Amino acid sequence: MSGLILVHKDAENQKKVPEIWKGVFREVVDALKDGDYQLARDITNVSTISEKVAMAIKGNIESYGEALISLPEETWNTSVCQWMVGYWDVLVDLFTEEGESDLVLSVRVRESSLGYLFDVHSVCVP
After folding, report:
1. Tell me: the pLDDT tens digits for 73-104?
2. 113 lies in a domain?
3. Which structural domain range is residue 112 located in?
């Protein structure tokens, strides 16, 4: 993991999303808003999503009834991560054309020799 910028590991408290991850989350949300639910486009260190999970994400976004937009800066005021001993659980608050939504992007982030690896788990209303 040489060259890896370390992110604080606090299993007791939620933290703000680290600055070094924000660009990846922006790319993921842009892919989702463009209808790329399996993340087939090449986003560095982001796993593609299975068809089953992609269809669930698509269904949750469509049933919400409002189109996603790119992440505005205010996303980071309420989005959080927490160390779960082995990975971080990250919840990124999503926005639609109507403003802040109840939808959340759920991602697990792990460390590896390649850097941080991102596994999208869902987009849903918690």
Report:
1. 999 999 999 999 899 999 999 999 999 999 99
2. yes
3. 15-124
- Name the domain count of the chain: 1
Does residue 7 fall inside a structural domain? no
CB atoms within 10 A of CB 79: 21
Residue where the block lists tokens 């460390």? 111
The pLDDT assigned to 1 comes to 44
Would you give the distance in Å from CA 15 to the centre of its chain? 15
Tell whether the model's pLDDT for residue 3 goes beyond 80.
no
| Strand duo 99-112 + 15-16: pairing | unpaired
Note whether residue 2 is domain-resident.
no
Contacts of residue 49, defined as CB under 8 A and 6 or more positions apart, other chains included, come to: 37, 38, 39, 57, 120
Q: Is 4 part of a structural domain of the chain?
A: no
pTM of model > 0.90:
yes
Which neighbouring-strand residues pair with 91?
80, 106
Q: What are the residues facing 88 on neighbouring strands? A: 83, 109
**Taking residues 37-56, what's their average pLDDT?**
95
